[in-house]
Amino acid sequence: MKKIAHILLGILCMLPVAGFAQDNGELMVSNAVGFIDIPYVAHTLDQEETEDLVINCDEMDCTTFVEYVLALSLSPTEDGQVAEGDFANFVQKIRYRDGKIDGYASRLHYITDWVNNGVKGGFLEDVTAEHSPYVMKVSLNYMTSHPEAYRQLANSPENVAKMKEIEKALSGQEIHYIPKDNLPNNGLPWIKNGDIIAITTNIEGLDVAHMGIAFYVQGKLCLLHASSTAKKVIVSKVALAQMLKDNDNWTGIRVLRMKK
Ligand code: 2YP
């Protein structure tokens, strides 16, 4: 599987040299494949006392992996190189509400919030809505119901109160998704390489439980993702549809696309 991914990467990386501009999806895939084998590490954004921009491409979880791939793909290039300043600016735009860092609650913790911010910022589009009539109503309270799982909530009633307001503001929003029984192993014609996949969940008080990048391998829609089981960034060996079937807490997917 990795060999196929690397062959594909080789082709994708040759496109610009051969004078072929990569489209947004190819850009997302070639940037994502560049992180294969990077170790999976959770809570890389929660190490410091104060909330500040953390860029750590040496260890990542499902969300920071997607953020770094998206930021790289949005950044302008000069002879194929991304300027560090541009990359950091895009990470901040992607990770924080309106791109402004103002304490822990300004980070977009819930993916519903993260997607809303990207759509508002003009760098994401939600392609699910136009292709799927299925909607789920978001009801968010996971973080404030499990403050012990979040260092910045466990010892800060102030942060818990701020997160409660955010949860209340987001709850009730209806989001389009594809129920897992409606996703074939070979994907759907409108789900493209490089699309961002947010896996919806039935876990009480949560909207999304995992994220990754859509990647077709020999006609099968797989997931390029930072895997907590494989403990690194991989291309899934099984189809995304099978991954969903194998996890009772996963209910379906949202499909988001980079816009620039
Ligand atoms: C997010 O969790 C965190 C952010 O606080 C954090 O837990 C929540 C609601 N948000 O800044 C961000 C980056 O570390 O992670 C993610 C988590 O997925 C884990 C990391 C994974 O599968 O690797 C996002 O929310 C994406 O799916 C969920 C999932 N959190 C939980 O399942 C509680």
Would you kindly provide a written description of the structure presented here, covering whatever features stand out?
The chain is of the alpha+beta class and 260 residues long. Helix content is 36%, strand content 20%. It has helices at residues 2-17, 24-33, 62-74, 84-95, 111-121, 128-131, 142-145, 151-154, 157-170, 240-245, and strands spanning 77-78, 81-82, 124-126, 135-137, 174-176, 178-179, 196-201, 208-217, 220-227, 232-235, 250-258. Strands 3, 6, 7, 8, 9, 10 and 11 form a seven-stranded antiparallel β-sheet that branches. A two-stranded antiparallel sheet has the order 1-2. Strands 4-5 form a two-stranded antiparallel ribbon. A hairpin with a 2-residue loop joins strand 1 and strand 2 (81-82). The longest helix is centred in the N-terminal third of the chain and has 16 residues, at 2-17. It binds ligand 2YP. Residues 42, 45, 61-64, 107, 109-111, 142-143, 206, 208-211, 226, 228 line the site of ligand 2YP.
Strand residue percentage:
15-25%
Q: Mean of the pLDDT scores?
A: 94
Shape: globular
Topology order in helix (H) and strand (E) letters: HHHEEHHEHEHHHEEEEEEHE
* Total strand segments: 11
Give the cofactors and ligands: ligand 2YP
Offer a quick outline of the entry.
The protein is of the alpha+beta class. Helices cover 36% and strands 20% of the residues. The protein starts with a helix and ends with a strand.
Keywords:
single chain; 260 residues; alpha+beta; seven-stranded antiparallel beta sheet; two-stranded antiparallel ribbon; 10 helices; 36% helix; binds ligand 2YP
